[in-house]
Fold this sequence. Notes:
- With 619 residues, this protein is an alpha/beta fold.
- 46% of the residues lie in helices and 11% in strands.
- The strands form 3 sheets. Strands 5-4-1-3-2-13 form a 6-stranded mixed β-sheet. A 6-stranded parallel β-sheet has the order 8-7-6-9-10-11, with helices on one face. Strands 12-14 form a two-stranded antiparallel ribbon.
- Helix 1 packs across helix 2 (44-67), helix 2 packs parallel to helix 11 and helix 13 packs across helix 15.
- The two termini are 54 Å apart.
Amino acid sequence: MAAPPLSSWPWASLGSYKYVLYGPVVWKVAEEWREQGAAPVGSWWLHLLLLFAARGLTYQFWFSYGNMLFFTRRRRVVPDSVDFRQVDAEWDWDNLVLLQTLIGATAVAQMRTPTQTLAGLRLEQQLQRGWDPRGWAIALLLHVFVSEPLFYWAHRALHRWAPLFSRYHAEHHRSPVTTPLTAAFGTPLESLLLTVVMGAPLAGAFLMGAGSVGLVYGHALLFDYLRSMGYSNVEVISPRLFQAFPPLRYLLYTPSYLSLHHREKDSNFCLFMPLFDLLGGTLNHKSWELQKEVYLGKNEEAPEFVFLAHVVDIMASMHVPFVLRSCSSTPFANHFVLLPFWPVAFAFMLLMWCCSKTFLVSFYRLRGHLHQMWTVPRYGFQYFIPAAKKGINEQIELAILRADRMGVKVLSLAALNKNEALNGGGTLFVNKHPELRVRIVHGNTLTAAVILNEIPSNVKDVFLTGATSKLGRAIALYLCRKKIRVLMLTLSSERFLKIQREAPAEFQQYLVQVTKYQPAQNCKTWLVGKWLSPREQRWAPAGTHFHQFVVPPIMGFRRDCTYGKLAAMRLPEDVEGLGTCEYTMGRGVVHACHAGGVVHFLEGWEHHEVGAIDVDRID
């Protein structure tokens, strides 16, 4: 069955290649640059590209702000998080801006025809003006008396007439949590409606001879700003403002106002001015009370489980929900598009090092329970600076005490936050605060279980690096009990012997200390707990599989070998609101230490899981 007209985008099959549609505009700018010998400052082809970029940044600004949960968590209208289904549905949210840019390019092309009319010349003269206050006054009047009622009645018709809603507007409302990107997401029909509504004040001002460059930029960016604000899902307007000046509540909508429409679908149809809902009898009278409740933070909910992570490196610091959703919703990789932002990320690293504390990054729900991820504002390399050790432990301790006050039941330590040399795998905090109600979990027992589960049952010997670490020790002791010979790479005979003595006497012979890589030349199962350089990887025979528990994971240089990913597990299918990937993990997959904390919480265990791994608990 053919899709209804204007219900799908003509360039949908192009995917990310849709941006080649900007090619003719870029070509025109380059052509004018070549002809003039300098940047064509007054070129409307250039203005179209600049306006596209500025509008994109407007949406991105509100998107970033709305997802900075450390600022906005108390004033979120809908307390849920965006899931992967919504992320994928809204992936091409910028189709609206692309369409309007192409319409603008068509208009500019018509003005520049050889048979340019007198009206075209007058229009081009107006476009050379930087500012004209008459145009702003005309645009404001046309917005109030044309754009607002036109949008109200068209939007109301989309909801009241079932065939129109199902074909053209239902997909927009399938996004359960509004974001600034939801504001631009829609069918071509919806986008054309917004184009007419947005363009009417501009067209009127130019037809009356009062147009200007400033009006085009100002009106377009203000329109996008207000749309993004309304869809941000964060209440930013104080109820005191409406109490001090009551008529203002009918002149400017709020995120709470828009959210009620998005959820209930039978009221609050206006563009920006609730006055038209009042006149049309569709104003939801819960709007002001909801706004007050949200702004005062009455919707805030304390988590029951917290995963306490840290930043891996500067590039990975940009793999967070408040930077680019197209990156954070896919496994981390060093995207070239992020390279220009590296200096900014570096500056933020220095800022966080000086004056930041642990903050909330993301959250999801599992079986009715709120799970959050907090991040210690420290980067991987800082954990190896002796002078930084005390400060990092203070950050972790403050996070634990805060979680305890909030009523968190389980806090799981990630990666280097549980480093043995740093805090004894969390033992430091449990010993210092024996009265803690929150259970501290390093999750390494489940991590060891996942790694061991991946080793084929017919393996007779393994090569283990990071052999005397917390995980290395547990893996070695477990494997020797299975009569698997473990070549433990360590220069410390004292640490090796200590571990060997922990094994039952009849199994100690299966633990073998090696100090170089040469003894592993015939071993095809490598368990990597310490970074391996390309030179060190060459000692492995062809066909070797590298199992990894080192962060960050080693790079795969050997084409004749295979490389496992970090130990991980998939969250249950009933997880809700999960829309970001955890570092290099796939969608819905978390590190095994994260999963270990989740299991600890779901099972209701009352003990702390800190310090050395209890090998008897692995199975």
